[in-house]
Amino acid sequence: MDAMRRPTPTLPVDRYVVDVLLRDLVGHDKRPAAFLVYLRLLASEPGRPGAGIAASLRDLAEQTGLSRSAVQAAVATLRRRQLIATRRAHPTATPVHRVLRPWRNR
To answer: Is residue 51 within 8 Å of 96, Cβ to Cβ?
Structure first.
């Protein structure tokens, strides 16, 4: 390995995300955008899971390549499915999304 090259960081993903959530969101709910947004938020988490990620709909749209309206619908789906929790300091503040892993609580 070249001394100047650094290994690419990896993203640890629970098997549940690939084995169950992918099929559930994409196949059953017909919401592939929700799966992409969930992965983007998961990848954006700071060092400690559940800390929260400040990201507007526009930010998420740019990061995923989706339209703003597709991201808006995806975020609504993820909230309804209790896969993310979103809070705002005030109505015009950038929302902070926390990735939830309800399968770990079972």
So the answer is: no
